[in-house]
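Quick one, probably user error.
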């Protein structure tokens, strides 16, 4: 089993697979300035087990196509949406976010929480724009610096892990250069990282090691999570996820 598959198992039973919050999804939707009485065609890319998909399905009319590379996440989402009777509005697609079988200008809204880093922000927002109608909405959350300067060890760590990390103003410039008009952005608050992500993740470590402890990579993943959590608690004044909401011009 490779690292991605092990991580999929570790995250499978958690509500979210990355930092976020129902209130953040709702705020992003408000900033999108759309008429929620109208039906929309939405793609939720890198949906995981669907925390934000469920919120969107409750607030929007129309159809949501939830996309993730792991069918196992989508099956978990299926259980969730059947429990909440939301199956009529959501369909699922196992596909890679950089190779999508969509038509040109098919969607009114493209949503992606904590996932575009898998192919990189610039590449993702530029590629996905092909599938948005003119005037369509892109809402994407992305790792961002939240101050203009920061301690060197922190900067070195993130530049090594994710070289595209930058400030909100730089992310906005990337969006503008790619042909979007930015409607708003905000920074995810601490509870999105702690109570909604790291604390449940920490709780799932024991079960994960019981199941996969015979694989040395599993221990490495758990150790890396712990280090990342400590890192966050030490340096949370300097980075978070930014949520960017933009309209295709
Ligand atoms: C950090 S999780 C975020 C999940 C969810 N949006 C949330 O906020 O809870 C990133 C998601 O991207 C998915 N992913 C990773 N690489 C992908 C790819 N190439 N194409 C589609 N999904 C991918 C992962 O399986 C995972 O579900």
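Nope, works fine. Designed sequence:
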């Amino acid at each position: 089993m490779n690292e991605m598959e092990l991580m999929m198992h570790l995250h499978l039973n958690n509500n979210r697979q990355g930092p976020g919050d129902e209130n953040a999804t709702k705020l992003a939707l408000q900033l999108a300035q759309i008429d929620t009485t109208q039906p929309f065609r939405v793609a939720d890319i890198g949906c995981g087990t669907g925390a934000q998909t469920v919120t969107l399905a409750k607030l929007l009319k129309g159809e949501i196509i939830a996309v993730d590379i792991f069918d196992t996440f989508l099956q978990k989402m299926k259980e969730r949406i059947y429990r909440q009777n939301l199956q009529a509005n959501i369909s699922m697609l196992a596909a890679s976010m950089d190779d999508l079988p969509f038509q040109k200008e098919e969607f009114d809204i493209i949503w992606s929480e904590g996932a575009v880093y898998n192919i990189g922000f610039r590449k993702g927002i530029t590629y996905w724009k092909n599938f948005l109608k003119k005037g369509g909405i892109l809402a994407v959350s992305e790792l961002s610096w939240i101050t203009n300067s920061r301690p060197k060890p922190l900067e070195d760590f993130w530049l090594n892990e994710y070289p595209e990390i930058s400030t909100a103003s730089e992310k906005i410039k990337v969006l503008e250069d790619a042909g979007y008009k930015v409607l708003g952005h905000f920074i995810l608050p601490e509870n999105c990282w702690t109570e909604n992500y790291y604390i449940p993740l920490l709780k799932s470590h024991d079960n994960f090691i019981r199941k996969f402890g015979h694989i040395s990579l599993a221990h490495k993943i758990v150790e890396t999570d712990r280090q990342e959590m400590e890192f966050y608690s030490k340096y949370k004044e300097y980075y978070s996820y930014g949520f960017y909401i933009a309209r295709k011009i």
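Residues 16-18, 20, 46-48, 51-52, 67-70, 73, 96-97, 113-115, 118 surround S-adenosylmethionine (CB under 6 Å).
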